[in-house]
């Protein structure tokens, strides 16, 4: 197992709880919603069967640490946050998130979830670097990531081609030393 996934972590605005098979319907609904799909590189519709196979092969084996984001104010499950490509030798991993409930966007829950999982990555998993890739056109996400502590490291021009259209990707990261300083 690459990482131990905590059952539940409670923070000020959000609670991160370990994803289970019972979350399949919500995750599939969220991942297939147009507003989520447009911000993902991989746009193939997700089926329950494909999600369960991925869950069993990646999450249950500790290769991916994936959590459901609960809004502490309402108790509603609003999305998911995860760490993937966990590299214990080089102490780095890739971060990802989606707020699937559209009515819950713009309330700071994504930023709160990012800060929460960064705390987990650095204090529990011993990571030195957490990085992400985001479409350059997704200004709202980039601003949220900056509020969580991520810094832009560069733009990969025309890095991804979807339906024949090239898109620039912004690469961002948080280092342990910066996180520790509260930057």
Structure description:
The chain has 183 residues and is an alpha+beta fold. The chain has a domain at 8-130: 3-Layer(aba) Sandwich (Aminopeptidase), CATH 3.40.630. 31% of the residues lie in helices and 35% in strands. The chain has six helices and eight strands; from the N terminus they run E-E-H-H-H-E-E-E-H-E-H-E-E-H. It has helices at residues 24-32, 34-37, 48-59, 109-123, 139-148, 176-181; strands spanning 8-10, 14-18, 65-71, 77-87, 92-99, 129-135, 151-162, 165-175. It has an eight-stranded mixed beta sheet, sandwiched between helices.
In a few lines, what is going on in this structure?
This protein is α+β, with helices and mostly antiparallel strands and 183 residues long. The protein is 31% helix and 35% strand. It has helices at 24-32, 34-37, 48-59, 109-123, 139-148, 176-181, and strands at residues 8-10, 14-18, 65-71, 77-87, 92-99, 129-135, 151-162, 165-175.
Could you outline the blueprint of secondary structure elements for this entry?
Blueprint lengths: L7 E3 L3 E5 L5 H9 L1 H4 L10 H12 L5 E7 L5 E11 L4 E8 L9 H15 L5 E7 L3 H10 L2 E12 L2 E11 H6 L2
Parallel strand pairs: 5-6
Antiparallel strand pairs: 1-2, 2-3, 3-4, 4-5, 6-8, 7-8
Helix pairs in contact: 4-5
What fold name stands as the CATH topology of one domain? Answer: Aminopeptidase
The CATH superfamily of one domain turns out to be Gcn5-related N-acetyltransferase (GNAT)
In the predicted model, the low-confidence regions spanning at least 5 consecutive residues are none
Summarize the helix and strand pattern as letters. Answer: EEHHHEEEHEHEEH
Average predicted confidence as pLDDT: 93
Overall SS class: alpha+beta
Rg (CA only): 16 Å
Count all strands and give the number.
Answer: 8
The 3D shape can be described as: globular
Question: Number of DSSP helices?
Answer: 6
User: Do you know the CATH architecture of one domain?
Assistant: 3-Layer(aba) Sandwich
Report strand %: 25-35%
